[in-house]
UniProtKB/TrEMBL annotation, chains A, B:
It comes from Propithecus coquereli. This is N-acyl-aromatic-L-amino acid amidohydrolase. One of its GO terms (cellular component) is apical plasma membrane. Pfam families: AstE_AspA_cat, AstE_AspA_hybrid. One of its GO terms (molecular function) is aminoacylase activity. Residues 13-206 form the Succinylglutamate desuccinylase/Aspartoacylase catalytic domain. Zn(2+) binds at residues 21, 24, 116. The active site is at residue 178. Its cofactor is Zn(2+). The keyword Cytoplasm applies.
Amino acid sequence: MCSLPVPREPLCRVAVTGGTHGNEMSGIYLARHWLQAPEDLQRPSFSATPVLANPAAAAACRRYVDRDLNRTFTSAFLTARASPDDPYEVTRAQELNQLLGPKASGQAFDFILDLHNTTANMGTCLIVDNAHNVFAMHLCHHLQLQHPELSCRVFLYQQQGEESYAVHSVAKNGIGLELGPQPQGVLRADLFSQMRALVAAALDFIELFNQGTDFPAFEAEAYRIAGTVDFPRAKDGDLAGTVHPQLQDRDFEPLQPGAPVFQMFSGEDVLYEGESTVSPVFINEAAYYEKGIAFIQTEKLTFSVPALPSLTPAPTPLP
Amino acid sequence: MCSLPVPREPLCRVAVTGGTHGNEMSGIYLARHWLQAPEDLQRPSFSATPVLANPAAAAACRRYVDRDLNRTFTSAFLTARASPDDPYEVTRAQELNQLLGPKASGQAFDFILDLHNTTANMGTCLIVDNAHNVFAMHLCHHLQLQHPELSCRVFLYQQQGEESYAVHSVAKNGIGLELGPQPQGVLRADLFSQMRALVAAALDFIELFNQGTDFPAFEAEAYRIAGTVDFPRAKDGDLAGTVHPQLQDRDFEPLQPGAPVFQMFSGEDVLYEGESTVSPVFINEAAYYEKGIAFIQTEKLTFSVPALPSLTPAPTPLP
């Protein structure tokens, strides 16, 4: 993985996308609210653009209509010739790529904040592609400092050699905010307020950067994806058990070899057979049943993030 | 409302229906498990029949395909002439009426236990049509005594003059089990085990009754439906706010006049303007957004339930 170069210009084209998944309600209602009342997204040096990313899925209160939009921003989908038979989300990904990209081009937006909810007990999770993304890691650090009460954790999701596929990959940079637990189709006031406050703090960070603030190096802690674990399944592929009560709701806590991970319908426990302690996340997330994921294994890391140098101030205009 | 006569014969035809709503996972996986392994449902005097009530919705992990099955057991739907254009759930209600009814006939099943989950913080809720259903009230009392750790509450849902519409209304009698909170599409091991234990205790009660046990009168507490309250909405009908953090998760707790019930996206609080204290239930249930229900108001009542007389023992067969 290469280190993403830190920006050398102010970030003026910023988008906040909600409803990338149509049943994750915090982002849907924030995006709808900001489309009516955009003042919250205005800062002296820029105004962020609110986007309801998957309006058809949001109208149906489903994750997606034809396929997961947030897995559709790969080059193959974005460059395919359009056809009337295209899945809805392929068409929509191409539209968003026109609006916010094109991906990997100089015209792309500078930054996307993409808003999500999970049914898992993830608290406040900040989703970054990898730890070499110095600007994103500083943004996360700022959110942690501004909102210590939320215990924001950083999840590094990109696997070695994997093409980026998420909506924020059409911009030059971006992160996801993942707040839970919240059932699909439910709008909790507490998570709505938290997400609103986090977006405000993220825009404040971009404003500080744009104004020429420099941010010193720091020691970071993050959880890097190490693999996925499926539910126990019967011969027909259906569930034969579910997440063990001793693992349920324990996202980010250490899981040690020999600890129970599943409870079978027949009554037995299934134990974790890995050789090292991991930190499971997205435990029993509703949307991942169809993906064959009962939880995602991560390894907890600490590392040094270098300073984020301040922008060279633009020449002061003559009076 | 008339008092339902107490049974004078053993209850031998008993069904347990799961997946009446296709994204309420405890009942779906219990029904699927029992269809493979029916021993749990066997008692000396009867064997309960497991039924996956809405298989198409369960396969799609949605509440329903075309319309809410659990509002489709009215005379108008059950007696309508079948047509190929019928909504799936109308066809399925007619099938279930053939299998478990016909409704209001002598051939109908004696009892249906219908299994549900809610996203609301309802704990263990036992759903009975009305307090004059002496047999059902005794069954609920038995569950309360057998499982004091679950704080089982009784919700009386039938409103004056309303035709019965739920799946258990096709049998001569029945109740619903409503366990929460559980997100749609998620199977929590704790609620799965609780529901399994409650079904076992309910079948044990029917067995005791069938064996000639008499059950003394008792004082009951229950929550009777008194109305519904919608979310605050904008002119276009979309939400303008959501359930207030001070009301969220407080199902069955007293709500006093003047207490906050909603938090608007604009920031203000909406206060409860009723004249008397009520007990809200199904607070912020995902499935009720489309029904225009943010919560259901109930009044908490106590009343006397008369003894349930024992069955006259059948004449002992001659050797």
